[in-house]
Specification:
The chain has 377 residues and is of the alpha/beta class. It contains twelve helices and 13 strands. The protein has helices at residues 16-28, 71-81, 95-103, 128-137, 149-157, 212-220, 237-246, 283-290, 303-306, 321-332, 335-352, 355-369; strands at 3-9, 32-38, 56-58, 86-90, 111-114, 143-146, 166-168, 198-203, 226-231, 253-257, 271-273, 295-298, 315-316. 47% of the residues are buried. The mean pLDDT is 95.
């Protein structure tokens, strides 16, 4: 009998945590079946990444995961959770699943909470009310999982989580797929290259915390020919296009939307770039590293310890247009440096961020929580 897992997501739109959750679902195969709840019911695009043959359903009319604190709502959530063998909750938007276990824990399956980072409202400063709420709720979780050193420190210091219940599991990707073979048809704008032109890639949700208009403005100041491709979906799309128009580079900035299977297109780029206000351990950076790209980004989250030492000089000390522009400009003019740094990043990704280790760590954690250590391996 397969294990029945309930996934309580803040959103199930395509993004880093959703892609990881789906990769785990695919890896567990017929050993598990899954029920998915999104706190934003219309955000379900990540289900397109679920492999054929995986048994899953989108819950119909589940109890709401968001709203004012309510004993009645917590009781409804807890009653719903009792149907399953394991409950996985993701990010602040699903923390009420953990609070329901705190208030109505009797007879509930094990609960494991995952925190992957923050939105705009906590990008600069942690919210003290949310900190307190997490301190109250999280003791009900069998474990708290984080992907980065930064989040591990926050959980210990600000959420008062005991080290024994805290697990840091680095994100990983299928590095063996990044062989250099790409499909230019996936991004038509990159099928032709002008002399001296560089291709800059970015994979990110089009959200305010990613501050992608800043990346557009940085590229707008380049002295070299370029095309900037930003892959993702989200509410900031028009602001990004407006920034391109204001810099008079609207014919050099492309937003094709979200594309799956990054190993088929990441190698089309010469440089990978981010401009985020907040990150933790972005999967897109690991994908770029696996594809052999140099990375230009602010020094946020774990990015400085993720990239190869040779890439360090291309992480901007200040998160502004000039510092990001200058680092892209330098790489644009030195193809040998791009290739050398990219090769070092590729080797580091294979050594530290392969998904086989990540999958094994999650399978072991989930199995131990249920008292069935080998159930998902």
């Amino acid at each position: 009998m397969p294990i029945h897992i309930l996934h309580l997501h803040s959103t199930f739109a395509p993004g880093g945590k959703e892609a990881r959750a789906v990769r785990l679902m695919n890896a567990f195969g017929d050993k598990a079946r899954h029920t998915i709840v999104s706190a934003m019911p219309d955000q379900l695009g990540a289900r397109d990444l679920i492999a054929k043959g995986i048994k899953y359903e989108i819950a119909q009319n589940p109890p709401p995961l968001t709203g004012k604190p309510s004993v009645r709502r917590y009781e409804e959530i807890a009653r719903f959770m009792r149907r399953f063998d394991l409950v996985l909750t993701y990010n602040w938007g699903a923390i009420d699943g953990v609070m329901a276990a705190r208030v109505f824990g009797k007879g509930l399956p094990p609960v494991i909470h995952h925190e992957d980072g923050f939105n705009e409202d906590e990008a600069r400063r942690l919210n003290p009310v949310r900190n307190m709420y997490r301190r109250i709720a999280l003791p009900a979780a069998n474990a708290l999982v984080v992907p980065s050193h930064i989040l591990e420190k926050i959980a210990l210091k600000h959420w008062h989580q005991p080290a024994a219940r805290l697990r840091r599991i680095p994100n990983g990707v299928a590095t063996a797929l990044y062989t250099g073979r790409t499909d230019p048809r996936l991004i038509p704008a990159l099928q032709k290259r002008r002399e001296g032109e560089i291709f800059i890639g970015c994979v990110a949700g089009l959200r305010e915390v990613k501050d992608l208009p800043l990346l557009v403005r940085a590229c707008g100041g380049l002295n070299t020919r370029f095309k900037l491709v930003i892959l993702g979906e989200g509410p900031e799309r028009q602001n990004i296009l407006d920034a391109a128009e204001s810099m008079a580079i609207e014919d050099q900035v492309f937003l094709p939307g979200y594309l799956s299977e990054p190993h088929k297109y990441m190698g089309l780029f010469d440089i990978f770039a981010l401009s985020s206000k907040s990150e933790q351990a972005p999967i897109s950076v690991i994908e770029a590293m696996a594809a052999g790209l140099p990375v230009v980004a602010p020094r946020v989250g774990d990015i400085p310890v993720m990239v190869a030492p040779e890439n360090d000089a291309f992480l901007a000390p200040r998160r502004n247009e000039v510092d990001i522009r200058d680092r892209i400009e330098t790489l644009a003019g030195h193809a040998e440096s791009r290739h050398y740094i990219g090769a070092q990043n590729r080797e580091r990704a294979r050594a530290l961020f392969d998904e086989a280790a990540m999958i094994a760590s999650y399978a072991r954690l989930y199995g131990e929580a249920m008292g069935r250590p080998d159930a998902l391996q």
